[in-house]
Design goal:
- The complex is a heterodimer of chains A (about 400) and B (about 260).
- In chain A, the strands form 3 sheets. A 7-stranded parallel β-sheet of chain A has the order 11-10-9-12-13-14-15, sandwiched between helices.
- In chain A, helix 3 crosses helix 9 and helix 6 packs parallel to helix 8.
- Chain A has 11 helices and 15 strands.
- Chain A folds into 2 domains: about 130 residues, no CATH class; about 240 residues, Rossmann fold.
- Chain A is globular, with a radius of gyration of 22 Å.
- Chain B is of the alpha/beta class.
- Chain B has 6 helices and 15 strands.
- In chain B, the strands form 4 sheets. Chain B has a 9-stranded mixed β-sheet with strand order 1-15-13-5-7-11-12-4-14, with helices on one face. A two-stranded antiparallel sheet of chain B has the order 2-3. Chain B has a two-stranded parallel ribbon with strand order 6-10.
- In chain B, helix 5 runs parallel beside helix 6.
- The chains are: A alpha/beta (about 400), B alpha/beta (about 260).
- At the A-B interface, helix 5 and helix 6 of A face strand 2, helix 4 and strand 8 of B.
């Protein structure tokens, strides 16, 4: 079990982040693509049904090149395990000893996996992203145990908020407030909660103040000076940044004159992310290996409409598409430090600005839960709830069809 | 000596003092808020262009953005629907002569401290005239509330509660009286509007905007340092930016005392 990390001695050097080996072939990135969504997929031969590992171009049994990534049963049993006490790889060298093993999967192949400290005999194998952002296999005990997430090795693959310091950029919304509660429940040490336009009292302010881990501070992502000052004040301590600040107005092009509303949306949803990234990312990058409570994740609240425009909320969709594109840039810039950028793509949230959309809409509390769970599971792209999952499948299956369906 | 050279020597000798009635433009300074579904004024924002660095090695400058009604600002008649068809109703066409005028400062600071919803009445003005003389025509009437002293605390300055904003301002009869019987140049306040925070509930709503602008008069808001002005005798310079068909503009307001 993980004990609370000691307070950092502020005069000691912060070690620079190192990464595990990150090179992958294009075909091997199929494992990463599934792991990014929290899925365990291996290649399977369409001709003889043999499951393949490691990823390859042709079937190891019948040499067919008709291999497809398919969800596989995750059960397996440990054939052999070993503890690594020496490595020439800089990343593992700093994290020794390290437990590894051979696992025979029920679906066929035998794989090399990182072993959880409690993994014995029968295990569940997951494809998880490592600090280099690439998929690796991790064997976990089949039975969920208390404090399982606190395993030292597992924490290298997840972004668990436990004992970490978090900034939630907007505490004014129901989602922001639910996030603070979930993060507190997940064991976050300290949660800074931003709120714009501090002269306007908002519902839930007093309740937020009662959460012992929460500290409220004025933060307006449209104000560069304010973002810079807040980053100067707390940026060196933020381990997880959750950017949930968004502006959403239900307009397309034709039903709102002028560009002002769209500009406000861009200012919050796109430039807000850019301002935060410019001011907070440098310090987070420098703290990617800062002990057990290192800087570890950046979470962006995007929208399923980032993938395909929903014309009744057309300008909002466009701003989220812009934010999505920028988040990919941020992801690339954070990767050398091992800091994960988690993108969240919800369907319509049950809030004021989706008032006229019929259900199903994702409840802010449920969305907050899935965002925190994504951190605990180490997932990179989150499609919370059934609606978003269905949209994801429709989008992956045929983006053009989804475009037509959304504009119907 | 001509009037202007007398003024110049007064400035030089310190006999004439220049008082800045302007709040500093900054992102923190509170801005007007409307219901979120309506169009919104841009708050003041500033971005560095370069700071003696690789973006411009020897110079420092910024880009800023804001609405016409940001910080200490001027309201032109065209700002309100009642003034929309008047001649010379926008900041670029207002006669420049109107940018300079004598100031009558009505001290309502005690009343406003007791009651944030204090309304300046016709009777209150008549009482003031008994002590300081009749308001001359073409004068700025400035309502001193000391509200500007709250500006460091945005929440106290805006003074919102569940029923909206609570700030002092003039009532309907006071505005009608100043326009019709005193022929003033305009009305100035220290709070975020020339009307009271709860003026939406007056009849008509926002009477100072409605009648002042309907009669081609002007407004100044977010003024400060009114406590440094005498009740009468100061001259105010308030020239807005020359924006084509502009409904108002942030500006530097100064008073000669």
């Amino acid at each position: 079990m993980l004990t609370r990390p000691k307070r950092k001695n502020p005069v000691l050097r912060t070690r620079l982040p190192t990464l595990p080996p990150g090179a992958r072939s294009r075909v091997a990135l199929g494992l990463t693509a599934a792991a990014a969504l929290g899925r365990f997929e291996l290649q399977q031969c369409r001709d003889c049904a043999t499951v393949q590992y490691p990823p390859r171009e042709a079937c190891q049994k019948c040499l067919s090149i008709r291999l497809a990534w398919r969800a596989q049963r995750p059960e397996g049993s440990i054939l052999a395990d070993t503890e690594l006490h020496h490595s020439n790889d800089l990343f593992f060298r700093e994290r020794l000893p390290w437990r590894l093993g051979l696992v025979k999967l029920a679906c066929g192949p035998t794989v090399v996996a990182h072993l959880h400290e409690s993994a014995r005999n029968e295990v569940t194998v997951r494809a998880m992203l490592d600090r280099a952002g690439q998929a690796v296999l991790v064997a976990l005990p089949q039975k969920e145990a208390a404090n399982m997430a606190e395993d030292r090795q597992l924490r290298e693959f997840t972004c668990d908020p436990k004992f970490r310091k978090v900034l939630v950029t907007d505490g004014k919304t129901a989602l922001g407030q639910a996030l603070v509660k979930e993060l507190a429940k997940a064991g976050a040490d300290l949660i800074w909660v931003g709120y714009a336009e501090p002269w306007k009292k908002f519902a839930g302010f007093e309740e937020l103040q009662k959460i012992p881990q929460a500290t409220l501070l004025p933060l307006d992502v449209t104000d560069s000076k304010n973002v810079r000052e807040v980053a100067a004040e707390i940026g060196g301590k933020v381990d997880i940044l959750v950017n949930n600040a968004e502006l959403h107005r239900p307009f397309g092009i034709a039903n709102r004159a002028g560009v002002d509303t769209a500009r406000f949306e861009m200012d919050v949803n796109y430039f807000g992310l850019l301002r935060l990234a410019q001011e907070f990312a440098p310090a987070m990058r420098s703290r990617g290996a800062d002990g057990q409570a290192s800087a570890v994740a950046w979470v962006n609240l995007l929208s399923i409409y980032a993938h395909a425009n929903f014309p009744p909320h057309g300008t909002f969709s466009a701003s989220k598409a812009a934010a999505h594109s920028l988040s990919q840039c941020l992801r690339a810039e954070m990767r050398p430090a091992g800091v994960r950028v988690v993108n969240v793509f919800p369907g319509p949230i049950d809030d004021e600005w989706n008032q006229l959309l019929p259900p199903p809409k994702v409840a802010p509390a449920a969305l907050a839960k899935s965002m925190v769970k994504a951190l605990q599971d180490g997932v990179e792209d989150v499609y919370p709830g059934d609606v978003a999952q269905e949209w994801l499948e429709r989008w992956r299956d045929n983006p053009k069809a989804l475009e037509r369906e959304l504009s119907a | 000596m001509s009037v202007l050279s007398e003024l110049a020597s007064g400035l030089l000798s310190g006999k004439v003092r220049v008082v800045d009635l302007t709040q500093t433009l900054s992102p923190e300074f509170p801005h007007i808020s409307l219901p979120p579904e309506m169009g919104q004024a841009w708050p003041f924002r500033i971005e560095e262009v370069s700071h003696y660095d690789e973006r411009g090695p020897a110079w420092y400058w910024n880009n800023f953005s804001c609405g016409e009604h940001t910080g200490t600002h001027f309201d032109a008649p065209v700002h309100w629907v009642s003034g929309k068809d008047l001649p010379n109703n926008a900041v670029d066409t207002i006669p420049p002569r109107d940018f300079v005028g004598p100031a009558c400062v009505i001290d309502c600071s005690k009343e406003s401290a007791k009651d944030a919803d204090f309304l300046l009445t016709r009777e209150f003005i008549l009482e003031w005239e008994k002590r300081h003389g009749k308001i001359p025509s073409k004068a700025w009437v400035l309502m001193r509330t000391d509200w500007s002293k709250r500006s460091a605390d945005a929440a106290a300055f805006q003074n919102y509660d569940e029923t909206g904003q609570h700030t002092p301002g003039p009532d309907v009869e006071a505005v009608k009286f100043l326009v019709a019987e005193r022929d003033i140049l305009g009305f100035g306040t220290e709070s975020i509007g020339t009307d009271a925070g709860q003026a939406y509930h007056l009849r008509p709503p926002y009477p100072c905007h409605y009648f002042m602008h309907g009669a081609g008069r002007y407004g100044l808001q977010c003024l400060t340092n009114l406590d440094q002005l005498p009740p009468t005798g100061a001259v105010v310079f308030a020239a807005p930016l020359k924006i084509r068909k502009g409904s108002g503009s942030p500006l530097r307001v100064i008073a000669l005392v």
